[in-house]
Amino acid sequence: MPSYIVVGGQWGDEGKGSVIAYLALKDRPDLIARGGVGTNAGHSVFINGKKYAVRQLPTGFIQTEARLLVGAGVLVDPGVFFHELEHLRDFDVARRVGIDYRCAIIEGKHRELDSTNSHLHGEIGTTGSGCGPANADRVMRTAKLAKDIKELEPYLTDVASEVNDALDDGKLVLVEGTQGFGLSLYYGTYPYVTSKDTTASAIASDVGIGPTRVDDVIVVFKSFPTRVGAGPFPTEMDEAEAERLGLIEYGTVTGRRRRVGWFDFDFARYSARINGATMLALTMLDKYDKDAFGVTDYDKLPRRARKFVEEIEERVGVPVALIKTGPELEHIIDRRDVI
Ligand code: GTP
Ligand code: IMP
Ligand code: MG
């Protein structure tokens, strides 16, 4: 698969970061390009007992041989960008990162509006990162672009050309999405959504590849979906139940407690369909069945966990190719060669 896209199938925070980090190390893509909205995203990766959180740069940073790119569709907050270059200095990121010169810029006024406006912050429960207001300025055609910011100059590139050149040369390209299907501006639970479409097609457009150049779409689902912020969540469980099941989580960007729910098979089927999923990744299987913790061989999964995976495959209609069974990168079952 010369190009593949990884997207979230629920309301974000499915653990895309840890799936992408695994793929980046295992498959050794030549180029890793990030699509999605902007710094509202938060991905955390657990490497050798240390937690790294990124909001702006690709989560595949862990693969130190790869070129790292931020596509034109993504909003750039220069403060967050430079912070992450420093945060990830052990991974030699500054030398290999490129930002499309057409990325729109998040400014202080956008963050301000996003964290004070009663509709955005109060009713919708935005992350306050300025993404919605910056995208609004982009639509109004008043936003600044990356090429207008002097400090970004050393990092500017034409991401679309780089990605297409890599594909022409038969290189492997990994494309990262952010958020999740339920937060899509078009297909999600409007108005409780983010400021852009989040499906695989949009992510392809964000980095400048046409639909004919995408070989695989991996949609990531969490065994117990979560949602931060307001909006419908039909399978939500109450807080006491979530606590009883050991499912307490807090957001990477906002620190807000995540709402937790039961796996919604019908929703997952719809999400996989609109995303054009060719494979699924399932995370947190150890939260569903604690005896699944750390298992790396499908045949060694406990019966209850395996039944859950089988039910997903049957009711969603797409093979579960990757299964995370714990927080570390190696806590994964990779069945891509047998499906
Ligand atoms: P995305 O936004 O989809 O990238 O997810 P996220 O990074 O926001 O999710 P979160 O902040 O909750 O981070 C995921 C954390 O859970 C990371 O520390 C991962 O190492 C860890 N994790 C990932 N997969 C599993 C899993 O299968 N089991 C357990 N117990 N932890 C996991
Ligand atoms: P915004 O994207 O900051 O405008 O927030 C809009 C909605 O999307 C809010 O409900 C946020 O909580 C949610 N949201 C945005 N980004 C993420 C994410 O990375 N993970 C989970 N929820 C998100
Ligand atoms: Mg997240």
Word description of this protein:
This protein has 339 residues and is α/β, with parallel strands linked by helices. It has a single domain (3-334), classed as Adenylosuccinate Synthetase, Chain A, domain 1, CATH 3.40.440. 30% of the residues lie in helices and 17% in strands. The protein contains eleven helices and 14 strands. The strands form three sheets. It has a ten-stranded mixed β-sheet with strand order 7-6-5-2-8-1-9-12-13-14, sandwiched between helices. The protein has a two-stranded antiparallel ribbon with strand order 3-4. The chain has a two-stranded antiparallel sheet with strand order 10-11. Strand 13 (320-324) and strand 14 (332-334) form a beta hairpin. Helix 3 packs across helix 4 (118-124) and helix 3 (108-116) packs across helix 5. The longest helix has 14 residues, at 303-316. The protein is globular, with a radius of gyration of 19 Å. The structure holds guanosine-5'-triphosphate (GTP), inosinic acid (IMP) and magnesium ion (MG).
Main attributes?
339 residues; 30% helix; 14 strands; globular; alpha/beta; Adenylosuccinate Synthetase, Chain A, domain 1; binds magnesium ion; ten-stranded mixed sheet
